[in-house]
Every structure is written in C-alpha cells, then in structure tokens.
Amino acid sequence: MGKKAHVLVVPYPAQGHVTPLLKLSHRIADYGVKVTFVNTEFVHAKIMATMPDHNNEEEEEEEQNQVGLVSIPDGLGPNDDRRDALKLLEKKIRCVIADPTLGWILEVAKEMGIEQAAMWPAGTRGLPLFPHIPKLIESGVMDMSGAILRNELINVSKDIRAFSTSELDWNCIDDPIIQKICFECALTIKQTLEHSNWFLCNTIYELDLPVCRLLPNILPVGPLLASDHPRHSSGSFSLQDSTCLRWLNEQPAGSVVYVAFGSTTVFSQHQFHELALGLELAGWPFLWIVRPGLTNRSFAEYPDGFAEKVAGRGKIVEWAPQEKLGQSAIACFMTHCGWNSTMEGVSNGVPFLCWPYFGDQFHNRSSICDVWKVGLRLEHDENKIVSRHEIKKKIENLLSDDDIKANSLKLKKIARNSIEKGGSSCKNFERFVQHLKQ
Ligand code: UDP
Q: Which parts of the chain span the membrane according to its record (predicted)?
C-alpha cells in the first residue's frame, strides 16, 4: 500500500474557527488521508481537556483514521521555539489547509512548494465585499484604514442584495482597535480569496447561488456537521453540559426557545436583564446558554426573583452540546447568527430569531431573514436595547408563522441532501480529497 497523503490543517485560534476546521479534518481523515491539526498551545490544552475518554479499545483501522492534534507556541516570547511551525512544514506535507485570515501560513507553504488550500469557516454572503475594498477606497466611501467616510448602499452584483456601510465586517463594532484588526484581516482574506486555487467554504451551493456564481473559485462543502464517532474531539473549548439533553427530552415537542450567542458575544448588564425579563414575559420554556463572559460584569446578575419565576420552565447552562440539540422539543433558536450556529440550525430545520453582534453575523442575519426566509429580526429600540416586549412579540410572531416553519424544513432537506452521496457538497468535497490523494 502506498504512503498516505499527509495534510496540515491550521485554524485561526477561536472557537468558531477551530470547530469547523476540525470537522473538515475528521472528514478528510475518514477518506484515508493523514491529517495533522495544528493548534496554539492555549487552544490545544482546552480541547484536550474536553476530549472524550481515551481508554476504550478501538479497531486498528479507526486508529489510523484519527486526526493528529499537535500544538505550537502561541506567543513569541524570548524563549519560544520559533522553528516549531516550520518543522511541521518540513515533513512531507501534501497540502496545507489554513484559515484565510492566516494568509502568511499559505504564503510560507507556497514558498516551500507545498500546495495550499483555504478553508473559510464564516458566512459567505459578505465574501464579495472583500475584492470590492479597493473600489470603496477609490470612490471615497472609506479611507485606507477601512474607516467609513460616507454612508451608502454598496452594490457588488445585481443578484446580491446591497450592503449597508454599517454592516461591513470590520465596521460593525464600536471599538477602533477591533475595527483596525478586522480591517487588516479583511485585506488578508481578500488576498487569499483572490489567489487560492481551493477556497473551501462551510456552505451549500443551493443556498448560496449568487455568491458561488460571482466567486467561482469557492468550493461549498457544508454543512460541516459534528462527527458521531465517540472518540472524535468536537473541538469545544469548554466542557459541554449534557444535563440539558435530558431536560429537553422532557419538554413538549416544539415548545422550547433555545437561546445561545456563541463564544464571543458580550451583553451589557442592562441588556442581559432585559433578555432575562423577555424570556420570563414570553412564557415559553427556554434553554439559555449563559457562558462566563456573556455580560460585561465578572458574573451575570439575574433580575430579582428570576429563578423562582421561571422555575420548571427555564434551564440555564454555561455551555451545551449545541450540535446534539436536534430534539423535536426545540421550537426556535435565538442566536447571534454566528455562521456555525446558522449552519447547525439550518441542518436541524429550526427557525431563527436573529440578534447579530459582530463581523459576518449581520450578513448571516440577512441570509436567514431576507434570502432563505427562515427567521425574524430582533430590533433595538432608540436606546440600542432589545426590549423584553420586543423579545416576547418576536417569539410569538415566529412561533405562529407557518411559512417560516415550512421554509426551515425545506432548508433542512437541502442541507442534508447536499452532504449525502451525490449531493453538491459531497461531490465538491470528494473532488478535493481525490486531488489530495493524487
Ligand atoms: N456551541 C456549543 N455550545 C454552546 C454554544 C455554542 O458547542 O453552548 C458551539 C456551536 O455549536 C458552534 C460554536 O460553538 O459550533 C459557535 O460558533 P459560531 O460560529 O456560531 O459563533 P462564534 O462563537 O464564532 O461567535
């Protein structure tokens, strides 16, 4: 038997980037390609701590199809070994697959004569904006550092809804330092998008037609779903509290509002209170993920008497096995519209209540509400707060909307079909893996 092709996969060190790249890695390994997954030490330690138990015996063949998890130093302090990443590249690597925000890794691979592929883990609707950046600067809509000089609607194609300047990935958070970092990332993504032969995306051709036609080098291979292999790491940075699965199983079908805002959203204490009061007022059972850091205080403070008022119908955990929440009890998903959450909700046929926070999440909301019509927007009031009354009203509107429910089920079918044998994403993925094996 010939030697296995060996690929190196390098994610950006954040939860929403590591998880989809790890899922992709497990799929590649399932096809008999050796995969080494490179995390920073900080992320590696977190993932190892949440890994399933290693003690049970497994088939030898399965052992061979595991993804090798390795780490490199994260900071470049004086005593750090700067050669570790390069040493990994010196092994006989067939291809380096990296997050497009890490364009430098792809450049190093190119210089070393190693094939490169990018894997984009975020939403694709905003991708056409990146090649458009020079035009935006030239026409005076923004300056060289991405700061908006003129608010207007941006048209990139007649088939894609215009973008508002307030929705640009690097312009939708009120912090100049983060804006600058995001704009630098946008420039790197633009470069990678324009120069990659392979630009894999966690999306579905049928759901993203205009973007796929406009950017023909992108290769939709989604939805990337969690492996059900008991020993595969989910890539979760935090321990997943499974008590909510049992709790969900006890709830009536289509009754639970699932409330989760991913790994980075931060609410003011005032907004957090209003959300709690909204869930109380709405009267539906809810499962709410309140991870440490969800509010801008050291710990989340609930309104007085909240626990007593929602006792029996409200379940709160710090981190759930979100991908396993496919239960029929879930009626809708109140989400920040992170792309992984979006793909997971679509794959489970769940209607969305959209509350974006940052980056691509505003474009993802637009896909959910305007293009696919599987969700509703939660709107801020004049004080930039989503009020308890808005929350109650939108939950009621969403749960009584039969068109949205029907669309969600249609989308679920499209998503599931695309990764079945012969489906569009499956074919794309197999084309890529066969290429790796040549
Ligand atoms: N997630 C999870 N448990 C939770 C909440 C979220 O496992 O309680 C996972 C979720 O399934 C998704 C990821 O965390 O895969 C969040 O990624 P997303 O792109 O939605 O948002 P981000 O964290 O990047 O903002």
A: none
SS3 (DSSP) at 199 = strand
Atom of ligand 1 nearest to the CA of 323: 11
Among candidates 194, 10, 18, 197, which has minimal Cα distance to 97? 10
Positions of CATH 3.40.50.2000 in the chain: 6-125+193-225+421-436, 243-415
**How many helical (H) and strand (E) elements, i.e. helices and strands, does the chain have?**
16, 15
CATH top-level class for 243-415? alpha beta
CA-derived radius of gyration, the chain: 22
CA of 408 to the centre of ligand 1 (A): 20
- The verdict on pTM exceeding 0.90 is yes
Q: How far apart are CA 374 and CA 406, in angstroms?
A: 8
How far does the centroid of ligand 1 lie from the alpha carbon of residue 34, in Å?
27
- Asked if 367 contacts 336 with a C-beta cutoff of 8 angstroms, the reply is no
Burial call 328-351: b when 16+ CB within 10 Å, e when fewer: ebbbbbbbbbbbbbbbbbbbbbbb
Per-residue pLDDT for the chain (438 aa), expressed as one digit of tens each? 568 999 999 999 999 999 999 999 999 999 999 999 999 999 999 999 988 765 555 554 455 568 999 998 876 665 655 556 666 777 689 999 999 999 999 999 999 999 999 999 999 999 999 999 999 999 999 999 999 999 999 999 999 989 999 888 888 777 888 888 889 999 999 999 998 989 999 999 999 999 999 998 999 999 999 877 777 888 999 999 999 999 999 999 999 999 999 999 999 999 999 999 999 999 999 999 999 999 988 888 999 999 999 999 999 999 999 988 877 899 999 999 999 999 999 999 999 999 999 889 999 999 999 999 999 999 999 999 999 999 999 999 999 999 999 999 999 999 999 999 999 999 999 999 999 998
C-alpha span between 218 and 136 (Å, rounded): 23
Atom of ligand 1 nearest to the CA of 339: 19
Whether 338 lines ligand 1, by a CB cut-off of 6 Å, is yes
Atom of ligand 1 nearest to the CA of 344: 11
Where does residue 96 rank: exposed (0-12), middle (13-18), buried (19+ CB within 10 A)? buried
Q: Which CATH architecture has domain 6-125+193-225+421-436?
A: 3-Layer(aba) Sandwich (3.40)
